[in-house]
Amino acid sequence: MASKFKVLQVIPKLGYGGAETGCYDLAHYLNEVGCKSYIITSGGELIKYIDKKKVTLIKLPVHSKNPLLILVNSIIISFIILFLNISIVHARSRAPAWSCYFATRITRRKFVTTFHGTYNFQNKIKKFYNSIMVKSDLLIAGSNFIFSHIHENYSKYLNSKKKFLVIFRGINTEYFDPNNIKQDDIIKLKNLWKLDKNKKIILLPGRLTSWKGQEMFIESLNIFRSTNPEIDFTAIILGTDQGRTVFRKKIESLVQQHDLTKNIKFVDHCKKMPLAYYLSDVVVSSSIEPEAFGRVSIEAQSMKKPIIASNIGGSNETIIDNKTGLLFESGNPQALSNKLKEIIKLDTLTLDLMGNEGRKNVLNRFNIEKMCFNTYSEYKKLIN
């Protein structure tokens, strides 16, 4: 078959997460290599940035887990596949994957899934619900950690005749490039966040949820302050609670309890994340449960910033310990405090070397072009 085939990606919402940005980037790349590119989604902030000349957007409530709606969506998607003559359907989450599975079985088209996270699989019902992600003609894992996770937990659902491989996520290294930062923008952000230029800036990006480790991070800062009184710092916890108001109040109370209100700032969001990384002295990923990939680690390295991350999940793959960043024992506030001191005490030459190695690591392994090219190559193999 000619290279100009048609690809339909289906994702619940187009927000700013790793799965969503990957979908967005691949959709535009496919157009550049001569394919017709379509996305079905229920909405999201990224929609306004889609180039409508390159990507056709179709809105459906594919975010819903309602079984009846999943079935209705599968019928509608079947008609869309036939009407547009879609060659490949690529689902990026479980609810839409069920709809796409039924639709591709009806229309006899190729079905692709990307397993982006570990998902909740504590009971048989959840595990069965998740298992749809491994019933595709081509199964993509976003990291070696996820690849192993699938083998360990979903082996009975895997079909040895179907292809299963790892394609690392990629980021836009031109967007996350310290050389493209304007100093006027940095000054504006520092003023907006009321940051003292004489203080070390510690950045913790990520939505406010217990497994991201904000509680442990606050505990580590309490230790760090008491053992390093000579180091003046401001820590920025950057992320929204997404309705988890109880958890937000819990960690805000913890900050007050440790008398850290002068050291810790809560910021809901930042429109230009490269600026947040740029003004930071060190970036932290404190997850107490495994990150499927760890986008923060990649973005920080791309911005030539030292990253300290938990030694679990995808971070073990994305960070070269003691070369592009530091790993610490997950859930251990003392260990994180020690690593913070180690980074902040480093001389400028060593920090620059770590930053350069970090960016090189991302350019070589985790760039958008590589992710898109590898996915496109697998698409071609699937339909030829």
Structure write-up:
It is a single chain. The chain is α/β, with parallel strands linked by helices. The protein folds into 2 domains: 6-170 and 367-383, Glycogen Phosphorylase B (Rossmann fold); 178-365, Rossmann fold. Helices cover 43% and strands 16% of the residues. The chain is built from 14 helices and 13 strands. The strands form 2 sheets. The protein has a 7-stranded parallel sheet with strand order 3-2-1-4-5-6-7, sandwiched between helices. The chain starts with 5 loop residues before the first strand and ends with a helix.
Radius of gyration computed on alpha carbons: 22 Å
Q: What is the CATH superfamily classification of the largest domain?
A: Glycogen Phosphorylase B
- Form type: globular
Helix fraction?
40-55%
Quickly give the CATH architecture of the largest domain: 3-Layer(aba) Sandwich
Number of domains: 2
Largest sheet, strands/sense/barrel: 7 strands, parallel
Q: What is the CA-CA span between the terminal residues?
A: 6 Å
**How many beta-strand segments?**
13
* CATH topology (level 3) name of the largest domain: Rossmann fold
Give, in spatial order, the strands making up the sheet with the most strands: 3-2-1-4-5-6-7
H-E string: EHEEHEHEHEHEHEHEHEHEHEHEHHH
What proportion strand? 15-25%
Mean of the pLDDT scores? Answer: 94
Q: Label the structural class.
A: alpha/beta
* Count, helices: 14
Low-pLDDT segments, ≥5 res? none
CATH class of the largest domain: Alpha Beta
